[in-house]
Amino acid sequence: MAENTSIKPADSAELKQIFLKYASHVEKDERLMTAGDFAQKYLGLVPEDGDVAAATARLVTGAADQTKDGRISFAEFQAFETMLRAPDALYMLAFQLFDVDCNGAIDLKEFKEVLSRTSMHEVVPFNADCPLIKAYFGYDGSRKLDYSAFSELIQEVKGEYLRQAFVHFDSKKNGTISALDLAEILRAFRKGSLSEFVDEHLVTVAGGHASHTVSYAYYKAFNGMLDKLSLLQHIFSLASHDDASKELTKEELLASAGQFSQVTPMEIDILFELCNVNEQTGRVRLDNLKVLLPKMPPSRLPTAGEVPPGEYEYTEISVFMQLMESGYRFLLGGIAGATGATAVYPIDLVKTRMQNQRSAGMVGELMYKNSFDCFLKVIRNEGPLGLYRGLGPQLVGVAPEKAIKLTMNDFMRGKMTNKDGSIPLLGEIISGGCGGGCQVLFTNPLEIVKIRLQVQGEVQGGRKVGAVRIIRELGARGLYKGASACFMRDIPFSAIYFPTYAHMKTLLGGDEPKKIHFMIAGFIAGVPAAGLLTPADVIKTRLQVKAREGQRTYNGLVDCTRKIYADEGGRAFWKGCGARVCRSSPQFAVTLFTYEFLQSTFALDFGRAKKPKSGPSELPPLQHSDFIGGLQYANSTFAGVEQHLGLVLPKFTPRSPATGTHHR
Description:
Elements: H1 12-22, E1 25-27, E2 30-32, H2 35-42, H3 51-61, H4 74-83, H5 89-98, H6 108-115, H7 119-123, H8 131-137, H9 147-169, E3 176-178, H10 179-189, H11 196-206, E4 213-215, H12 216-227, H13 229-239, E5 248-249, H14 250-257, H15 265-275, E6 283-284, H16 286-290, E7 312-313, H17 319-356, H18 371-382, H19 391-416, H20 425-454, H21 467-478, H22 483-509, H23 515-532, H24 534-544, H25 557-568, H26 577-601, E8 611-612, H27 634-645
Helix pairs in contact: 2-3, 5-27, 9-10, 10-11, 12-15, 13-14, 17-18, 17-19, 17-26, 19-20, 20-21, 20-22, 22-23, 22-24, 23-26, 24-25
């Protein structure tokens, strides 16, 4: 049995003390737990009075009682704790409940016996003489099921039982039941897992048709919708772009649900009927969906088909699909980066020309008084298109630049993340710096070509050359001229930008930021990152621009820094600072906004988000000093047997993880 390594095992000595605290029965000098000790006093799952409660307590105890003698030894208690740490604890627990004879296999008699003790059996006795049961146990019922086979069967039993319940209530044999019949079935099969809102209005919604009857298709879709509420909430978040206040039409939600084959149009119809039962607006908000979710202790496992936001795991996909996914991310990043770059490119051109302007060396060399004067002279002398000189190389480089930077930052953040999910500030800084450093290897050649194209218009009547000619003139080594200054600029830029952006995003939007928060956070983070690194950007520009006759030339980072300071003073290092901030801040804001918009509008999972989690690792632990190790998840897993597998036990009362009180 594989253990879930994320759950710390219980200390043996401490576990022994807890066992002795509740074990009231003594047999041959050995302390043992009775069914009452285990199910009622320790777990608190079952009330401590009544014949039905006692029968349920014995059934629950069977999950830990391996010998099925009605007593639990310390060894069995310890084995139970270990079992609850297994990734498949839910199915193992169910198997133990059904394995009445304790022989490692389940026969038809045991299966029918346990089902007969559930609350559903009181309303609709399960007909074991059905094709599903015959397929598993054989037509003569002689086959026994091991753990693997049982796990497959139990997944299908809930659907079969619901089908039989419909047939049972279809007294006229015309394929319909009444709304009241639907309510009775759901309250028996989903005891405790219906929200107060659904419980109150399901008859109204189901009986709202002219015939006041429910077809099997509607009945099946109603159950499917209840099973997929968390998935539907996730789909709503995608369609609304994480805007909780946004109202969606049925068509908008259907379009987003089309990415998930589990959701049917009729399930969406029923969802809208429920959400609009009090007010016929034809739209739904996230708040409408939340009232449909049951108010249970937060220990419920996702049911079949559910993929709660942040609580689903990715299935393995083929190499081809991985390449498709990478191409998709690259395309979105490229479009977003190109949009941001184009939006602010005129500012970038002005910034470059201001930084390249030398205040020493030639008489009358100063062409621009300030950034605004530069902007006006470019339009006057070169026309509006002059503001976009050199845009081509920028657009070619922006897609891989953003992809490399974001991918490396995300990769390093994953490496720096603590076990509790937090990232230390130093880890965020290192991650951002690594992202900035990696992009230089690709973007420096594009930067130098872009800059040389940007300054060509300064010389009236001068010969204009294209990007290809510039690349040929520079050669392979020349394309990396100024790379040291580029490293000096981009590493600290990203080290400042990404941590600031992450913290601003959380500060503005909390755990669920909206797209506007991405834009604002991106804008704010760009101000210190761009402003503080202006000196490095000035040095990089001077190194990469081809000096005209009479202008200073520079031999490397140190030489350039020394000469700028000697010729123009310290203020020269801050030339174009305003233009740089005005360019970088909105560029990143537009880029991130566009990326989030594209990602939510054209959201694709490439076959990944299909598999709901089903182990105890995502369940909240029971906060009680006597629940340690895997036992923290005992009540959660028992609740999962009821919710996920549909085995509602009479008088089953899962204890609240927060208070230890009963819920029903």
